[in-house]
Amino acid sequence: MCNFCDVLHQPNRSVSIVALVGVYLCAAAACGWSLPPVLGRCRHCSLVCHSSPSSRWGFGLRRYCRLHLCCAAAQPTPAPPKAPNKHPLKIPCALTDLAGLRPQINSEIMLIRSVGTYLAVIRQFSVAAARTDTVAASSSGGGDTLGRRLLSLVYPKRSAVVAINKWMEEGHAPPRKYQLNRIVRELRKDKRYKHALEVCEWMTLQKDIKLVAGDYAVHLDLITKVRGLNSAEKFFEDLPDRMRGRQTCSALLHAYVQNNLVNKAEALMLKMSECDFLRNPLPYNHMISLYISNGKLEKVLKIIQELKMNTSPDVITFNLWLTACALKNDVESAERVLLELKKAKIDPDWLTYSTLTNLYIKNASLEKAGSTVKEMENRTYRKTRVAYSSLLSLHTNMGNKDDVNRIWKKMKASFRKMNDNEYICMISSLVKLGDFAGAEDLYREWESVSGTNDVRVSNVLLASYINQDQMEIAENFCNEIVQKGVIPSYTTWELFTWGYLKRKNVEKFLDYFGKAISSVKKWSPNQLLVQQAFKIIEEQAHTEGAEELLAILKNAGHVNTNIYNLFLQTYVTAGKMPLIVTERMKKDDVKLDEETHRLLNLTRKMCVSDVSRISS
Ligand SMILES: *[C@@H]1O[C@H](CO)[C@@H](O)[C@H](O)[C@H]1NC(C)=O
Ligand SMILES: *[C@@H]1O[C@H](CO)[C@@H](O)[C@H](O)[C@H]1NC(C)=O
Ligand SMILES: *[C@@H]1O[C@H](CO)[C@@H](O)[C@H](O)[C@H]1NC(C)=O
């Protein structure tokens, strides 16, 4: 954060007037006021802060401080994690996997997915902290404002530029830069990237609006989100030279990281190093999270050493570093990192302790976990709302039922209404703790208060029924929720598929597997599911099932040599000869390998199977 602003991020600290003035001035600079002389630089974003008579802005000190313009304006917001079409019950609670339904082999996959979620939390949280309370600021005032109009556009097809022009045609004064910046920030927070980008583009066309590097960084980030990486690179290349500085480079780096382009990101880091743009931890943090999400943990230490030569790690660096230790199950290193953090006089936050607690739980050091989770709770406030969910899941993993209920009560007392993610977290906690009646009660409560019909919540209860092999109850439950207007998702059908796989009911699981696949535009293949399905089909020498599964996979655009071999194996086991397999493989553009030939040779002498079953 801005070295002025960060004082404000410590809720328990009294805020001195000096700090307030600092933020004020820093914020003013972010709005592009050209106000000599230079007062100082924001340590985080290097925005130059100017001194100036405060009367010029015409609104109160306090109001401006709440905006945190300085850092929020300069920092490109990381994109929220994209919601892939199929996620096995993605639970927002830290590093937990709920679906015990999936066999243990799958834990590695779950881990990778959870790391993604976790990194997203780290990034989101740190950004959230940088723009606390902007909502309150922007929604004050009431009446008809340009901001209100732009925020109410909602549909992407509507144009922000048209709205601004109309505003001016009605005789209003041209919007000031700080107002537009604020609107852009609000729009980004609502993920309304197209409208935010249109406002940015409008600003660049105004002669009397002076843009600073931070504005271009935001602009670049929006282009990445709306038009993609190529456009962002082009935008960067076309920037005026003096704007191709530290901030826009960081934004481009962030774009590479979001697109998982390790080589490009590394090349850009080299360039940034040559230009001496690496004097703050932000770009390094981008790189660390890139390495972690790619499993390149060995590079994490190296980049941290590099960071230390140029600048000092911040709490995000330490949290990422701890995450790397946790992934390696390396308790000793993690403890050393915590010591180093304390020595650097950096205040650990809830994420620091959440990561440590997770690690201790994995290490079966429940006593240490108990003490770190207390530290974590001590750093959990209204502002760090997502931390409550993490607390729930950590206490659940430690089997602390009383604490889980206590935290839930605390949440209910602190917030007007629990959101869907929080219900998901609590319901799955209750399920994990074996309190099924409690889980069902809470589900009913959610049904009565939420109104979102979010199928992810239903999926938690459904998974619990299916886990307990209560397939009939699960089916009834599913019918019931559909009648209430919940739309089943891929996960819903995949859960049923797993449930009937466990029961070895070929007809049923194929039925649900077909439903699962037709519920998504593009299926991202789940190898484990396919293998298990073929395994059970083969066990039962169920050649019709094999044909049907092959047809489903073909529809989903997922046939390959391995699939055909699994398919043939069923025929071998059944002692039957499949028809025109080589022709079918040719038609599907699938190559035959040695195993295919071996299996074909084996079936050659067997009797012919029923021709009518073959679906093309
Ligand atoms: C916990 O960590 C210690 C120290 O790294 C290690 O020796 C031990 O095997 C770990 N225990 C488990 C259960 O992972
Ligand atoms: C929690 O924080 C308070 C002050 O902020 C401190 O006095 C107390 O010792 C802390 N508790 C724990 C368990 O760290
Ligand atoms: C399959 O059989 C043919 C002839 O019967 C033989 O030439 C070929 O080597 C066999 N292939 C495999 C992989 O066993």
Oligomeric status: single chain
Name the overall outline. Answer: globular
Structural class: mainly alpha
Task: Tally the beta strands.
Answer: 4
Small-molecule binders here are: 2-acetamido-2-deoxy-beta-D-glucopyranose
Mean pLDDT score, rounded? 80
Radius of gyration, in Å, reads 28 Å
Number of helices: 32
Q: Biggest β-sheet, characterized?
A: 2 strands, antiparallel
**Could you give the distance between the termini?**
61 Å
Strand content: under 5%
Helix percent reads 55-70%
In the sheet with the most strands, the strands line up as: 1-2
Query: Poorly predicted ranges (pLDDT <50, ≥5 residues)?
Result: 1-113, 126-141
List the helices and strands and how they pair.
Blueprint: H1 17-30, E1 38-41, E2 48-50, H2 61-67, H3 69-74, H4 107-130, H5 134-139, H6 146-151, H7 160-169, H8 177-189, H9 193-204, H10 213-227, H11 229-238, H12 246-258, H13 262-274, H14 281-293, H15 298-310, H16 315-327, H17 331-343, H18 350-362, H19 366-378, H20 386-397, H21 401-414, H22 420-432, H23 436-449, H24 455-467, H25 471-483, H26 490-502, H27 506-518, H28 527-539, H29 543-555, H30 561-574, E3 576-577, H31 581-587, H32 594-604, E4 607-608
Parallel strand pairs: 3-4
Antiparallel strand pairs: 1-2
The structure holds 2-acetamido-2-deoxy-beta-D-glucopyranose (NAG) (3 copies).
